[in-house]
Design a protein that fits this description.
The complex is a heterodimer of chains A (112) and B (119). Chain A is built from no helices and eleven strands. By secondary structure, chain A is mainly β. Chain B is globular and about 35 Å long. Classes of the chains: A mainly beta (112), B mainly beta (119). At the A-B interface, β4, β5 and β10 of A face β5, β9 and β10 of B.
Chain lengths: 112, 119
């Protein structure tokens, strides 16, 4: 079993839809959870950062962590064509950790 | 303003011909990373520097080397590129990795990547 599982998609939604992106993980040592957005042929850009279980909201984006189920989600409300990108979940263990473990990414297309 | 800058954005090299990719940062971060990302795959950590301390991942091939002459610059050297080394190479930086600061500014900032083609 891979440490981080992420459905690669592709996921295609109409503009204005609510998007749900998910990752599951197996390593209970992971404590910090990130979502990166990667546009085609560009480097990943940090989108959301969470630590504890629960929800964190930033504009149209909500990150959700359920440590008991080892499951994280990213919700995008009122999706826009500019949200079309690959979304990578990433996680790491606690203090002293250099290693980010990434999911493979989910490719999202928002159709106008 | 770009904070992690990679040059060139696109690099074509011949099979077996050494190639160097460059990364510079204006963030004054202590840690610099090199990742390899192949198409539709997760970025894979090759190595990182904490200041001048080099840390190689166990499964990074010997063909890949790195240099960090100062805080701002880090280079990835591929001694004899093979066809399988064609990928996007991502440089990233972060501050002290062992501080327990609950904020996104401790996380990794990535450059735009260098797409390497081997012919």
């Amino acid at each position: 079993q891979k440490e981080v599982e992420q459905d690669p998609g592709p996921l295609s939604v109409p503009e204005g839809a609510i998007v749900s992106l998910n990752c599951t993980y197996s390593n209970s040592a992971f404590q910090y959870f990130m979502w990166y957005r990667q546009y085609s042929r560009k480097g990943p850009e940090l989108l959301m950062y969470t630590y504890s279980s629960g929800n964190k909201e930033d504009g149209r984006f909500t990150a959700q962590v359920d440590k008991s189920s080892k499951y994280i989600s990213l919700f995008i409300r009122d999706s826009q064509p500019s949200d079309s990108a690959t979304y990578l979940c990433a996680m790491r263990s606690g203090a002293g950790s250099y290693q980010l473990t990434f999911g493979k990414g989910t490719k999202l297309s928002v159709i106008p | 303003d770009a904070m992690v800058i990679q040059n060139p954005r696109y690099q074509v090299t011949q099979f077996g011909k050494p190639v160097t990719l460059s990364c510079s940062q204006t963030l004054n971060h202590n840690v610099m990373y090199w990742y390899q990302q192949k198409s539709s795959q997760a970025p894979k950590l090759l190595f990182h520097y904490y200041d001048k301390d080099f840390n190689n991942e166990a499964d990074t091939p010997d063909n890949f080397q790195s240099r960090r002459p100062n805080t701002s610059f880090c280079f990835l050297d591929i001694r004899s590129p093979g066809l399988g080394d064609a990928a996007m190479y991502l440089c990233a930086t972060s501050r002290e990795p062992w501080t327990v600061i609950l904020g996104g500014d401790t996380e990794a900032f990535f450059g735009q990547g260098t797409r390497l083609t081997v012919v």
